[in-house]
């Protein structure tokens, strides 16, 4: 009987998952398709305008240049500005450390990714062992933080509050404190350092901490901006504690 | 555990009389204090565990960073020099183009590529990334948290909806994944039970059976969820073997870089291709979750074994220290008794000699008080009062007025 109900449950879940995807697809399409069309037209116009400005430039030559440029950009190289800027490497130690962190936390932005076969093979094994390690770590941090929660709960209990109220209050406290510290404050910070709008900062924070990690917004990659040397490490620490906070929320 | 004074092992009386441990503080431990103590002990233990694991994670990341840097930086440098040369060639070939305008163009190209539009050829005729099939695909990347990123919402509304959609969808998908994992486990369990039965018939040990079934699980799953799809991707998408396997692992661990995306290139795909890819992702994720949790269990077993060994080592060390201390105390005690006895002997001989000298001068013979010295190891109580009554200031009960017979007494006692 239980096996039957288990199968039924799974089938129902699969069906609702499918429906959920369909609904999401329809909404995303409605919201995004028009904007995409605009951007495609803009890209075409950009090429047109460039060609018009420099009339002796042939289409083939521009196309060739664009191909080279696209390849470079997809490899994470933004050849903007003069040579000295181009000296900054994407694979210096602090950036590689940040990359290793995005692998192990399964965020995986993708703006930086290994291109060499050796790098890809190592990435596979690094992930297979690093992800469980990360999960075990977050699990323990979550447990420790929930101990703090319990202490707070005990303190309130001794003050004479009812258990249900305590549970609700502690959950509320950690939820709101976490949202403030891990979503709102960093967004303000990113407004200054990255020049994003506040809502863009919140979107980036959410996409990062949920480990979805699209890579459309990535810290430290704005062309034409200079970042202080431990910027990415600071962001990595924020990601680490934010993930621990989410682990705590799951424990509560 | 509460500290207890060690009973005096050399004193058999204390062993029988003192059943209660001699404590310098209250013998009534309250329940609260013991729980607080155990709580704080657990807190300390958890803090130690967490900081150890944190250290391990940081070291793991540092190792990864160093290796990635060594592997990728040379390639990146060559890419950079190439594009710089190409840029310079372009500028020199077309001298009317000035550097600032070119940089503007490049920035626009960067923005376009980040928006998911490749500015090659006729961009307007490129396949849309937001037709229903691709939007469905995108919704999937959101709630599985894979998040390839080759397409992502650009509008304000799209981003807000994405956040809400993820908040609800990720837990939903989590439940589904658990259910699928259960079903997979049941199916696999039924299949492996038959294999295990045959092994049991062959009298193979339990641990060996478990190891064999784990290996079969890994092999089977690898073929079904990794190797087979990789071959299909290689064939349809035109990737190399390594790229296909790399894509499979990066996707099923939900890292999802987006450098390779099945169904993301401008190829004419079959109609059922994308739905099949989605079904594969669903089941493959469950398989990978099982594999990753297995690796996590191994790590936990290794850390537990290390903890046990460290604990055993500590216990051994403590035992050894306690033994050494006890032996040292016993030796010290024995030595002090021997030294005292020898001292007594020396002084009594000295007295004897001086007494003999005195006897030679003085013919008075006073009968000595014959008292036996009490051997403190005997438990005869009648000797005690005699000891207390004697006037002798020496423990052996003899006075310096005694004659040669007392030496024999001393010798007997010895």
From TrEMBL, chain A:
It is found in: Membrane. Keywords: Ion channel, Ion transport, Membrane, Potassium, Potassium channel, Potassium transport, Transmembrane, Transmembrane helix, Transport. GO terms for molecular function: outward rectifier potassium channel activity; potassium ion leak channel activity. InterPro entries: 2pore_dom_K_chnl (IPR003280), 2pore_dom_K_chnl_TASK (IPR003092), K_chnl_dom (IPR013099). One of its GO terms (biological process) is stabilization of membrane potential. It comes from the Eukaryota. It holds the Pfam family Ion_trans_2. The chain crosses the membrane at residues 12-31, 93-112, 118-138, 168-189, 201-219, 231-250. One of its GO terms (cellular component) is plasma membrane. It is a multi-pass membrane protein. SUPFAM superfamilies: Voltage-gated potassium channels. The keyword Repeat does not apply. Residues 89-145, 171-251 form the Potassium channel domain. Belongs to the two pore domain potassium channel (TC 1.A.1.8) family. This is KCNKG protein. The lineage of its organism: Eukaryota, Metazoa, Chordata, Craniata, Vertebrata. The gene is Kcnk16_1.
From TrEMBL, chain B:
InterPro entries: 2pore_dom_K_chnl, 2pore_dom_K_chnl_TREK, K_chnl_dom. The chain crosses the membrane at residues 53-71, 160-180, 211-232, 244-262, 277-299. Gene3D superfamilies: 1.10.287.70. This is KCNK2 protein. It comes from the Eukaryota. The gene is Kcnk2. Residues 14-28 have a biased composition (Polar residues). One of its GO terms (cellular component) is plasma membrane. Keywords: Cell membrane, Disulfide bond, Ion channel, Ion transport, Membrane, Potassium, Transmembrane, Transmembrane helix, Transport. It is a multi-pass membrane protein. SUPFAM superfamilies: Voltage-gated potassium channels. Residues 125-183, 223-300 form the Potassium channel domain. It catalyses: Cs(+)(in) = Cs(+)(out); K(+)(in) = K(+)(out); Rb(+)(in) = Rb(+)(out). Residues 1-28 are annotated as: Disordered. GO terms for biological process: stabilization of membrane potential. Belongs to the two pore domain potassium channel (TC 1.A.1.8) family. It comes from Tricholaema leucomelas (pied barbet). One of its GO terms (molecular function) is outward rectifier potassium channel activity. It is found in: Cell membrane.
């Amino acid at each position: 009987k239980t096996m039957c109900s288990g199968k039924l449950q799974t089938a129902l879940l699969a069906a609702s998952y499918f429906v959920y995807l369909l609904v999401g697809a329809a909404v995303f399409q409605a919201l995004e398709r028009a904007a995409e069309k605009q951007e495609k037209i803009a890209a075409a116009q950009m090429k047109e305008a460039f060609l018009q400005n420099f009339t002796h430039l042939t289409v083939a030559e521009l196309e060739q240049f664009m191909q080279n440029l696209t390849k470079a950009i997809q490899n994470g190289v933004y050849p903007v500005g003069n040579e000295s800027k181009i000296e900054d490497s994407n694979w210096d130690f602090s950036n590689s450390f940040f990359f290793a962190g995005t692998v192990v936390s399964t965020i995986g932005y993708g703006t930086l990714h290994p291109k060499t076969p050796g790098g890809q093979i190592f990435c596979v094994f690094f992930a297979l062992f690093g992800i469980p390690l990360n999960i075990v770590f977050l699990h323990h941090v979550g447990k420790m933080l929930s101990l703090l929660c319990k202490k707070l709960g005990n303190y309130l209990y001794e003050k004479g509050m009812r258990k249900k109220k305590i549970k609700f209050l502690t959950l509320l406290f950690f939820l709101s404190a976490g949202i403030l510290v891990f979503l709102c404050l960093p967004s303000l910070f990113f407004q200054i350092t990255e020049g994003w709008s506040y809502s863009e900062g919140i979107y980036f924070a959410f996409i990062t901490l949920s480990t979805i990690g699209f890579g459309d917004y990535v810290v430290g990659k704005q062309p034409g901006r200079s970042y202080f040397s431990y910027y990415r490490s600071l962001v990595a620490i924020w990601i680490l504690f934010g993930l621990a906070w989410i682990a705590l929320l799951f424990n509560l | 555990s509460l500290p207890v004074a060690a009973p005096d092992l050399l004193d058999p009386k204390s062993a029988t009389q003192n059943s209660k441990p001699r404590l310098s503080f209250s013998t009534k431990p309250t329940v609260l204090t013991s729980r607080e103590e155990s709580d704080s002990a657990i807190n300390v233990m958890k803090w130690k565990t967490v900081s150890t694991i944190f250290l391990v994670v940081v070291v793991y990341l540092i190792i990864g960073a160093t290796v990635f840097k060594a592997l990728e930086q040379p390639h990146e440098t060559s890419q950079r020099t190439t594009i710089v040369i190409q840029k310079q060639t372009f500028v020199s070939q077309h001298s009317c183009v000035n550097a600032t305008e070119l940089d503007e163009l490049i920035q626009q190209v960067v923005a376009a590529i980040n928006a998911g539009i490749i500015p090659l050829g006729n961009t307007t005729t490129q396949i849309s990334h937001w037709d229903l099939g691709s939007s469905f695909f995108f919704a999937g990347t959101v709630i599985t948290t894979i998040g390839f990123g080759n397409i992502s919402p650009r509008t304000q509304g799209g981003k807000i909806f994405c956040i809400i959609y993820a908040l609800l969808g990720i837990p939903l998908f989590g439940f589904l994944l658990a259910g699928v994992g259960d079903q997979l486990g049941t199916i696999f369990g039924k299949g492996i039970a038959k294999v295990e039965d045959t092994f049991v018939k062959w009298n193979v040990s339990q641990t060996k059976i478990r190891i064999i079934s784990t290996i079969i699980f890994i092999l089977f799953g690898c073929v079904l969820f990794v190797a087979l799809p990789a071959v299909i991707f290689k064939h349809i998408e035109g990737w190399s073997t390594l790229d296909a396997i790399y894509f499979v692992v990066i996707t099923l661990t939900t890292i999802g870089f987006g450098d390779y995306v099945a169904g993301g290139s401008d190829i004419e795909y079959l109609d059922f291709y994308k739905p099949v890819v989605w079904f594969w992702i669903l089941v493959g994720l469950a398989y990978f979750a099982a594999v990753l949790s297995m690796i996590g269990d191994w790590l936990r077993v290794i850390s537990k074994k290390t903890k046990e060994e460290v604990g055993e080592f500590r216990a051994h060390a403590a035992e050894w220290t306690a033994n050494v201390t006890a032996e040292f105390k016993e030796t010290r005690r024995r030595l002090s008794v021997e030294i005292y006895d020898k001292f007594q002997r020396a002084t009594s001989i000295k007295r004897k000699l001086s007494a003999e000298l005195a006897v030679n001068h003085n013919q008075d013979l006073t009968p000595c008080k014959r008292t036996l010295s009490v051997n403190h190891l005997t438990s005869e109580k009648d000797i005690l009062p005699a000891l207390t009554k004697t006037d002798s200031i020496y423990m052996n009960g003899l006075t310096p007025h005694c004659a040669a017979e007392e030496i024999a007494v001393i010798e007997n006692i010895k």
